[in-house]
Each structure stands twice: as structure tokens, then as C-alpha cells.
Design goal:
By secondary structure, the protein is mainly α. Helices cover 71% and strands 0% of the residues.
Length: 263
């Protein structure tokens, strides 16, 4: 079956908001990883400058060995932290995969409701947990390490969190709209005359020309669906024609109907 984009090929409002939300989540995850590495290196150099001097090679491997030897992290915790750091390097290659469920065709054409707004909530929660855990443990052992760079990390993180909260509100509102659309669609289709539906056969290829425009048969099918009280969304779904086209077709049908009534 051909691709179908009832509201155009651009993403609808709900999917746009989810995509932005996930993008901010990914940025927040990357920020936490970079902040974690920067904080650990800075704290060690403040407490043990001779053990991790500036310009030393294999900095990251050495800093984790120091933390393990000082009892800040266990070997098991290090393995999990390392997997998170490795994951952050793979995000760039996996952006499309992480957003593969968001598209005009999937969400709108099939009227799917969103399943999850998070790109990988477990991973983000885990890196935030380790960020706070290491901050607490290292503060007790090495003292408070605070730099302008870290303050910038914290400011950026707060900004991302604020934007995500704003988008959450937008997503909640759009979900209500989507659920209402789905409820109307289900109600209209469930109550539509089955025999008439089979006779009309709205998705029949003969209802459209090769260029996608409605044929005379398709126009007549739309008019009958309008006459039986179906909404633009339902007609668009059944005919596999964009809602914009259906709205224009309804306006033309209303004008023709009014003209006939006056005659």
C-alpha cells in the first residue's frame, strides 16, 4: 500500500514535540557524561596532582584506576560507567534508530498513539545516578571541586531540564488531542453501515488517478461519506487522501449542496 500522509509529510505537532524532547534528552545524557569525566579528572588532580598530572597519557583509564584503588567505585560500577561512556560515543550513529518510531506515515497514517517519549530513559537515569553518586563520594574523600566549567555544565543541564518540562506539557496536550481524534475515528467507523462501506470501498485504487488526485468515483465516494456524517479525519483515513485535500473537497461539496438547495 502506498505511503500516506494525511497531514502532510511534515511531522504533526505531537511527533515534533516528542522528537525535540528526545533530542534534549540525548543532549542531557552527553552533557552528564562530559561533566562526569571533567569532574573526576579535576577532583583527582586537586587531591593527587602527582598521580594524574597535566599532559599525562591514557588519562581516562588512569583516573578510573585511581578511583577504584581509593574505593570511590567498585570494579562492577566501573564496568557499568564505562558502558555508559561507550554508549555516548554511539549516539551519533544511532540517532535515526532511536527515533525510528517517529514519522508521519507511522503515527499519522495508521493513527498510532505514541508509545514512549523517552529515547532511553534507563540509560539517562543511570548516568544521572552515577553522576550524583560520584559527586557525593568524591566530595567526602577529596573535598568540594568547583570550577567555572562545572558551573556552565550545571547551567546547561538546568536549561535542558526546563525545556524538557515545557515540552512534556506540550506533549500531554497533544496526546489529549490525538486521543480525541482516535475516539472520533473509532466511533464513526464502528457505527458506519457495513454494507455501504463494502459497496463504496473507499481505499479502492480506482478512487484516485496515478498522480494521487481523486477520480470521479473517488469524489462521489467522498460526497457519500460526507453525507453520512463522517469527519474529515475519518474520510482522510478511509480514502488515504490528505486532510487538506479532504477539507477542500468538503468545502466544494458544501457549496454545491447549497447551490442545489437554492435551485
Amino acid at each position: 500500500m502506498e505511503d500516506y500522509y494525511p497531514k502532510g509529510r511534515g511531522l504533526p505537532a505531537l511527533e515534533r514535540a516528542i522528537l525535540k524532547y528526545r533530542a534534549f534528552q540525548m543532549m542531557r545524557f552527553l552533557l552528564h557524561v562530559e561533566e562526569l569525566k571533567s569532574f573526576v579528572i579535576g577532583s583527582i588532580r586537586k587531591a593527587f596532582p602527582e598521580r594524574l598530572p597535566e599532559g599525562t597519557g591514557d588519562t581516562h583509564q588512569k583516573m578510573w584506576k585511581i578511583l577504584i584503588s581509593e574505593g570511590i567505585v567498585t570494579s562492577e560500577e566501573f564496568d557499568e560507567i564505562q558502558s555508559l561512556i561507550d554508549y555516548h560515543y554511539r549516539i551519533g550513529d544511532r540517532v535515526q534508530q532511536l527515533n525510528r518510531d517517529i514519522s508521519s506515515e507511522l503515527f499519522t497514517a495508521n493513527f498510532y498513539k505514541y508509545k514512549d517519549i523517552d529515547f532511553d530513559s534507563d540509560t539517562l537515569d543511570t548516568i544521572e545516578r552515577y553522576r550524583n553518586l560520584l559527586d557525593s563520594r568524591m566530595r567526602e574523600k577529596f573535598g568540594r571541586y568547583l570550577t567555572l566549567k562545572r558551573l556552565l555544565f550545571e547551567s546547561s543541564g538546568k536549561t535542558l531540564t526546563q525545556e524538557m518540562n515545557r515540552l512534556k506539557g506540550m506533549i500531554r496536550r497533544q496526546v489529549v488531542i490525538r486521543e480525541n481524534e482516535l475516539a472520533i475515528l473509532k466511533s464513526e467507523l464502528d457505527n458506519f453501515d457495513t454494507e455501504l462501506f463494502d459497496e463504496l470501498d473507499p481505499s479502492n485504487p480506482k478512487n484516485k488517478y496515478k498522480n494521487g488526485r481523486l477520480s470521479d468515483r473517488g469524489v462521489e465516494c467522498c460526497y457519500i461519506l460526507f453525507q453520512h456524517g463522517l469527519s474529515d479525519s475519518s474520510v482522510s483515513y478511509l480514502m488515504r487522501v490528505s486532510q487538506t485535500s479532504i477539507q477542500k473537497r468538503r468545502n466544494k461539496w458544501l457549496l454545491e449542496s447549497n447551490h442545489e438547495d437554492k435551485s
